[in-house]
Amino acid sequence: CRWRLSWRDEADARRALERVMYRAALIDLDGTLVDTLGEIAIAANAMLVDAGREPVSDRIISEAIGEGSPMLVERLIGRDEAARWLPVYMDHYRVHNGARARLYGYAREGLDAMRAIGLAIACVTHQPSELVSPRHERLGISSHFAVHSVGSVPVATNHHPGPPAAAAARR
C-alpha cells in the first residue's frame, strides 16, 4: 500500500481522523488499495498468446500499466493492433477477475478507521462495476463503500477529474 496508518494504535488513528473535517474519501483501486498485478498479468499474457506472441513477465506487465486497459494493450501489442486486441484482453480479465487480487497491507484497517468515523468511502476507478463489485465482495470490503465504482464515466486518462466528480455527485 502506498499509505500506512502510522499511529500507535486504532484509538490514536481514530482520534486523528475525527479531527478531519471531511465527509467522504475517494480512493483509487488498482495499485493503491488492491494489488491486481497478478490478474492483469494473467489476462494480458492470455491475450498475447491468443495474438500469437510469447507471454511476458509480471515486471514487464507492471511497467506497461498506467492510463487504463487501452494503454496497457497498446504498450504490449502496439498501437496499430490495440483496438483489435482490447476486447480480447477484457474478456480474459473478466474470466480471471479477482483470481490473484489482494489487499495491500493496512488497507482494511484504513477502510475500517474511515468507516468508524462516518466517512462515506468511494472507490474511484475506470474499471466497470461488473469487475469491481465482485472483486470487492471476494476481498470482503464491499460494505465499506458508498459508491463501488465510477467506471462508466468516459474519460481520456486516469488523471481526468471525471471519476472523482462522479463519485462525489453520487453521494
Name the average pLDDT. 81
Structural class: mainly alpha
What radius of gyration results from the CA coordinates?
17 Å
Largest sheet: 3 strands, parallel
User: Judging from the principal axes of the Cα atoms, what is the shape?
Assistant: elongated
Sequence of secondary-structure elements = HEEHHHHEHEHEH
> Per DSSP, what share of the residues sits in E-state strands of 2 or more residues?
5-15%
- Spatial order of the strands in the main sheet? 1-4-5
- Strand count: 5
Low-confidence stretches: 152-157
Gap between N and C termini: 25 Å
Q: Estimate the helix proportion, in percent.
A: 40-55%
Tally of separate helices: 8
List key phrases describing it.
mainly alpha; 171 residues; three-stranded parallel sheet
Description:
51% of the residues lie in helices and 10% in strands. Helix 1 crosses helix 6 and helix 2 crosses helix 5. The two termini are 25 Å apart. Strand 4, helix 7 and strand 5 form a beta-alpha-beta unit. About 4% of the residues have low confidence. The chain is built from eight helices and five strands, in the order αββααααβαβαβα. With 171 residues, the chain is mainly alpha-helical.
What's the short version?
The chain has 171 residues and is mostly helical. The protein has helices at residues 10-18, 37-50, 58-64, 69-77, 79-96, 107-116, 129-139, 162-170; strands spanning 24-28, 34-35, 102-103, 120-124, 145-147. The strands form two sheets. A three-stranded parallel sheet has the order 1-4-5, sandwiched between helices.
